[in-house]
Amino acid sequence: MPKPAPAIEEHDRGFWEAANQRRLVVQNCTACMRLQMPPAPSCAACGSTHHLEWKEVRGRGRIEGYCVQHDTRVAALKAEQPFNTAVVELAEHPEIKFFSHLPGVPPAKVPVGAEVELVFQEVEPGQLIPEWQLVR
Ligand SMILES: [Zn+2]
After folding, report:
1. What's the 45 CA to ligand 1 centre distance in angstroms?
2. Displacement of CA 21 from its chain's centroid (Å)
3. Total-model pTM
4. Which residues surround ligand 1, an ion (CB under 5 A)?
5. In the chain, where the domains are located
6. Fewer CB near the terminus (10 Å): N or C of the chain?
């Protein structure tokens, strides 16, 4: 399904630049050795703004749960309703979660617990975004 292009801000520019290189990165606070997603201007645990770096992670995960959206507020997605919004936890760092529409999975037919792998979708010329699909 088509998705809106990201509104890139200074604190998440590195995330989107990595996506364009087909790499998945999360923020890593080197002051308290904690990973953070989504990216933020400061560490949610210690407040540091100067110890945030990008750490590349592997594109494997597991579906933790999901909901089905019937009345989204995102205008660009209304034509696709109803659609899945799944929570994916990273295999190597389960505390790090991503949202996914699970392309190819019918609404409400989400296999909770199943393994997923990272793919990239082009949402506008020159901008890739991470997405997740079932491991076949
Ligand atoms: Zn920190």
Report:
1. 5
2. 15
3. 0.92
4. 29, 31-32, 43, 45-46, 48
5. 10-134
6. C
